[in-house]
Write a structure and sequence with these properties.
By secondary structure, the protein is mainly β. The protein has 1 helix and 12 strands. It has a single domain, classed as Jelly Rolls (Sandwich). Helices cover 10% and strands 45% of the residues.
Length: 169
């Protein structure tokens, strides 16, 4: 029952973001009328057999052109792969680091310094430690599609909004 309620909570949280329930803004472009700036689809979720109290999650997020993900953290380490489009990603601060990997590379190697805005294209990816405060946006003309997986605390929301200013475009 706890797993079902957690999955429902995560789905409702992403639905709220997609429907504008959380501050989601446009910087370079505005999503088409009626088109949500961010749509998150939970693909799979299961309690971790190796780490009690943790959940393995897999989701697909689509960010419309001009869509902005507000500054936030996650309750565990995540891995994000750009499936299509371009993602502009910025680490704002916090503890730990984000490490970037190129298309086809088996391990991430390049640390992303706080305050640095990077662009990631199809096949590129990054690993993000818990408590890294970050933001992302789609500054392109096409939707950005991300695959996100992680091992996150089962009793915390997947996306925790932060009260921090986002960098200027």
């Amino acid at each position: 029952m706890r797993r079902v309620s957690l999955v429902l909570f995560v789905v409702m949280l992403f639905s709220a973001v997609a429907l504008g329930g959380t501050h989601v803004a446009a910087q370079d472009a505005t999503p088409a009328a009626g088109e949500p700036p961010i749509v998150a689809e939970m693909l799979a979720s299961a309690p971790s057999m190796d780490m009690p109290g943790m959940m393995q999650v897999l989701l697909r997020a689509t960010i419309a052109p001009g869509g902005v993900v507000p500054s936030h953290v996650h309750p565990g380490q995540i891995l994000v792969v750009v499936e299509s489009g371009t993602l502009t990603y910025t680490v704002l601060g916090g503890e730990g680091e984000s490490v970037r990997g190129g298309a086809g590379t088996p391990t991430a190697a390049e640390a992303i310094e706080p305050g640095t805005e990077i662009m990631l294209g199809p096949g590129e990816w990054f690993v993000e430690h818990p408590a890294v405060v970050h933001t992302a946006r789609n500054a392109g003309d096409e939707p950005t599609v991300l695959l996100v997986t992680g091992l996150v605390a089962a009793d915390e929301p997947f996306l925790q909004a932060m009260d921090m200013a986002t960098p200027a475009a």
